[in-house]
Amino acid sequence: MELLPIIKALSDETRLRILNLLKFGDLCVCEIEVLLDINQSNASRHLNKLTNAKLVEYYKVNKYVYYKIKEDILKEHPFVKEIIDSEIINLKVCESDLTKLKKYKQSGLSCDDLKEGKICLN
Amino acid sequence: MELLPIIKALSDETRLRILNLLKFGDLCVCEIEVLLDINQSNASRHLNKLTNAKLVEYYKVNKYVYYKIKEDILKEHPFVKEIIDSEIINLKVCESDLTKLKKYKQSGLSCDDLKEGKICLN
DNA sequence: TTATCATATGATTAAAAGCGAATATGTTCA
DNA sequence: TGAACATATTCGCTTTTAATCATATGATAA
């Protein structure tokens, strides 16, 4: 993959936030929506950009599409790994995103429950 | 320095080309203009962006302003060093930029000579 | 001091990127 | 099959970024 498209994919706060979450495990689109508090088309678009830059990939489970960080890219481009592992964490938003993520994971609930408001992440 | 402004400063081909040249030594604005074949205001603006992101700094010598890579940033943000040292080189444009740079340096001429067309870098 | 030169900065235009609302697609489940 | 749902895509709009031309600034040198 070309360098510039990768850097461009990384040059957006929402996309860094997505990578920050995916670092701790795969997530489907609707989980990302709720965790980042962004709307559906926005989530989908940003995920598309990350996919095009080959930073993430996806797989389908039932009606859900799960996204995950593409391991290849981390090997091919160590600077991406460096950013995801050591830099993103310093963004303030990412801290609170992780708080939400932790709360969600500890709840043991699924993304169906999320949408139904069975858990408040704030 | 904040992460996002740094990544944004890196997400432009011209600016990567500038960093690629500066890696081999400080250069004044008019040298960068000629080596990258871009106009003066363009060069100045991109250098300004790099300066704002604290990726480069400058000093004045006579009527010239020399730019150099800011060493601090490379220590603080290893991913920047990684990009400059190992990634930029793979950009095609940067190869030919370096050919020009080498030709210029080997000529022993100054930037005054450059403007007067005393050397052809193509 | 005045002319010259290197660089920076406005102002404008053009191109790219991002966003929300609505719609399309494709899957699941009753 | 048809209704419901998850995700992707399109449209129109706004914001951001880049490029160019012209002008301003600030230093140098005659």
Automatic annotation (TrEMBL), chains A, B:
Alphabetically ordered keywords of this record: DNA-binding, Transcription, Transcription regulation
Domain called HTH arsR-type: residue spans: 1-95
Segment forming the signal sequence: none
Pfam family, one: HTH_5
Sequence intervals crossing the membrane: none
GO terms, molecular function: DNA binding; DNA-binding transcription factor activity
Protein's name in the database: Transcriptional regulator, ArsR family
Organism: Caloramator quimbayensis
